[in-house]
């Protein structure tokens, strides 16, 4: 009953004209998916090599086979084949060792390079004499009137800074405050340019127009601290000969055998300040004795010694750290001649080496023996402000 009902079922289909057409249901219909009685599909796998569908055998139209229309084969319409007038090594000319480069382009035997110019061996280029110009132009032998150059003018703040008073920035402050006079009148104009004939004073002190130089030398052994030696011995001036063109003088002195810091300058006011005993400029020496310094002698130096020229007191004395007891550090402000050597010689010691490592706050940092350097502006200011 159910099969009959199911067979009579008709499926609706829709045509393009909008009318529906009923088609009977066919249970035996399948689209290549029929199954046999055992439930297995009747579809058979295609095997390669059979004549069904595309065949990959050698006799097929494989473009990579020799007998096919392979464009890379000699018999397959190759575009590089001789029959197609394409490129082929057989079409090339064989190498001819007798070949000449200009073969085929040789000049004819009757070729004349001068043909067309009608030149002959007796031809000479005509000489065209230039007309003489008898108009005389006298040379101007008069002396050339060069413009006279006036000495360079410098700004007032730079003039003060070059004199070693202070920096340019601080000079502007002093100018604005009225501390500077030019030719007897107070000058507060910051941009004023000083002429060579101007008289500039700072707090009543006359400033020199010559630029101040400050040279710090690490003196080696064997040089005399003087500007000129009558015996022709080497002096410290030989070491700073190329430092400046102005005349500079040593500030104080060091013995010929003493090494260390020595200042040279043309600033007379600063020289006087650093050498006068009342200012008490501090100096530190590294002393190496011929033997260990006894503690009792150490205390004698610290307490002060009475020498032939009076009592001498040191500011500080100590043994050098991690060194033998014959190496001593001594700080002193006295400017007496050979004072450090005379202190230890008074106690029966011989000074083998004496090196000044600090002078007025200046050190030997980055200054090898026998070399010199210019002081910085701040170092000059510190020296001037030293009390």
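Sequence proposed for the structure above (387 residues):
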């Amino acid at each position: 009953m159910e099969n009959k009902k199911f067979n009579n079922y008709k499926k609706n289909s829709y045509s393009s004209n909008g009318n529906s057409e009923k088609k009977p249901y066919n249970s035996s219909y399948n689209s290549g998916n029929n199954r046999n009685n055992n439930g297995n599909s009747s579809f058979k796998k295609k095997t390669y090599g059979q004549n069904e569908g595309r065949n990959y055998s050698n006799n097929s139209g494989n473009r990579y086979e020799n007998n096919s229309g392979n464009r890379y084969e000699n018999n397959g319409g190759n575009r590089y084949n001789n029959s197609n007038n394409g490129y082929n090594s057989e079409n090339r000319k064989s190498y001819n060792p007798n070949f000449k480069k200009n073969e085929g382009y040789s000049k004819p035997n009757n070729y004349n390079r001068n043909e067309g110019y009608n030149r002959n061996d007796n031809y000479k280029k005509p000489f065209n004499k230039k007309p003489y110009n008898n108009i005389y132009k006298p040379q101007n032998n008069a002396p050339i009137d060069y413009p006279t150059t006036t000495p360079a003018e410098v700004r007032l703040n730079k003039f003060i800074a070059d004199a070693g008073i202070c920096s340019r920035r601080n000079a502007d402050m002093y100018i604005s405050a009225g501390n500077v006079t030019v030719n007897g009148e107070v000058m507060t104009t910051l941009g004023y340019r000083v002429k060579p004939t101007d008289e500039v004073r700072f707090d009543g002190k006359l400033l020199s127009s010559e630029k101040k130089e400050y040279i710090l030398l690490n003196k080696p052994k064997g040089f005399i601290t003087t500007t000129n030696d009558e015996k022709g011995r080497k002096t410290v001036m030989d070491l700073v000969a190329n430092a400046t063109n102005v005349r500079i003088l040593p500030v104080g002195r060091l013995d010929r055998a003493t090494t260390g810091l020595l200042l040279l300058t043309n600033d007379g006011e600063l020289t006087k300040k650093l050498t006068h005993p009342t200012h008490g400029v501090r100096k530190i020496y590294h002393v190496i004795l011929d033997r260990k310094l006894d503690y009792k002698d150490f205390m004698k130096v610290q307490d002060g010694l009475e020498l032939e020229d009076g009592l001498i007191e040191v500011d500080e004395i100590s043994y050098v750290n991690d060194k033998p007891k014959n190496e001593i550090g001594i700080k002193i402000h006295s400017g007496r001649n050979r004072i450090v050597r005379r202190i230890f010689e008074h106690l029966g010691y011989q000074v083998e080496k004496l090196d000044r490592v600090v002078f007025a706050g200046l050190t030997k940092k980055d200054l090898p023996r026998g070399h010199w350097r210019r002081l910085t502006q701040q170092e000059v200011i510190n020296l001037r402000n030293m009390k």
